[in-house]
Amino acid sequence: MMTDVRAPVTNVWEVLMDSSYIPKLYPDVLTASVDPPGKNRVGQRFHIVAKAGRRKLEIFAETREVVERKKVVTRQTPGGLFASFDSTIELDPQGESTKVLTTFDYELSMGYLGKIFNMVLLERLVSDNLKAYATNLKEICELLPLE
Amino acid sequence: MRTVQETVFVEAKPEAVWEVLEDPYYIPKLYPDLLNVSVDPPGKAVVGQLRTMGARAGKRTIEIRTRVVSLTPGKRFELAGRDGGALDEFSQVMELIPQKGGTVMKATFRLKVSENYFGPGFDLLTLEQMAVRNQEEYLKNVKSLAELTPVV
User: Which residues contact B90 (CB under 8 A, 6 or more apart)?
Assistant: First the structure.
């Protein structure tokens, strides 16, 4: 998905490098903790808690590639909601705006979910969250500082 | 100075409520207008932990600064404001009382929006109402998240 963000690439990059924005970017993500703490970098591991209906789910991931102000690649690590998950965010600066290309490729873990969930509904939930990500990223990046 | 006092019954044990209260990384999900949070030291709440939140006021970004004043695990959690942010004064006290079937959560918030921080051109009353609304949503969201059940 390609999104035009009316903000310089530095704004977008600041959001992508700060894991505490994650609950704001995905509607059903509740919290995200990272190890080691601090700015996003290769090898940083994510433990994400999300909700599906009245259930809490876990997602485990790791940052695999970071190209300063250009690209972030995240991949699922064992356990949790996804059997596999690859996320690539690529930035194309356009002066005072930025084109953001988001690519998500995933497969849900049947073993983790067991028989609790309606898989069609869960697929829809995941899809809705991934679509919302780009919209929320744009909205946050386009906010202006107070002064 | 505005004061908000509310009591909410949460259909979950105090430990489940505490888990939400002590994890600062839930903050962006709990408050509608908070965007991100940085904490020092990182990790779960400890006395003296400094928190800096980015928030939105309309189409602007602002900063709110707090620190953890006291903690009694599973029972009481207190935050206070710090200089330099959008609130001249801030305090938050959350008390948890176990009851049959769940937890009574008593919350007291006091806040005052900073005129110096915003400068002329901002309606302080509107900003105050926004802050109060965020605190009210905070309580609902703490309840909602504490009542979730894990998959396993």
Answer: B64, B66, B79, B80, B81, B109, B110, B111, B112
Nearest-CB residue to A55 (from B25, B42, B149): B149
The pLDDT of residue B151 is above 70: no
**Count of other CB atoms within 10 angstroms of residue A23:** 26
DSSP result, B78-102: EEEE-TTSSEEEEEEEEEEEEETTE
pLDDT band at residue B1, thresholds of 50, 70 and 90? confident
H-run or E-run covering A138: helix A119-141
CA distances (Å), B1 to each of A34, A41, B48, in order?
37, 42, 24
d(CA A85, CA A57) in angstroms, rounded, equals: 15
Q: Using a CB-CB distance cutoff of 8 angstroms, which residues of chain B are in contact with residue A23?
A: 25-26, 28-29
The token pair at B148 is: 């979730």
Structure token digits, residue A42:
């290769």
Q: Give the span between the Cα atoms of A31 and A8, in whole angstroms.
A: 27
pLDDT band at A118 (very low <50, low <70, confident <90, very high): confident
Mean of the pLDDT values across residues B88-113? 96
Q: Kindly state whether A38 is in contact with chain B, defined as any CB-CB distance less than 8 angstroms.
A: yes
For chain A, the average pLDDT equals 93
Minimal-distance CA residue of chain A relative to B41: A37
Which of B4, B9, B1 lies closest to B140 in space, CA to CA?
Answer: B9
Give the Cα separation of B93 and B76 in Å (integer).
Answer: 7
Cis status of the peptide bond prior to A36, with omega within 30 of 0 = yes
In the block, tokens 């705006």 appear at: A97
Q: Identify the band that residue A111 occupies on the pLDDT scale cut at 50, 70 and 90.
A: confident
pTM metric for this prediction: 0.93
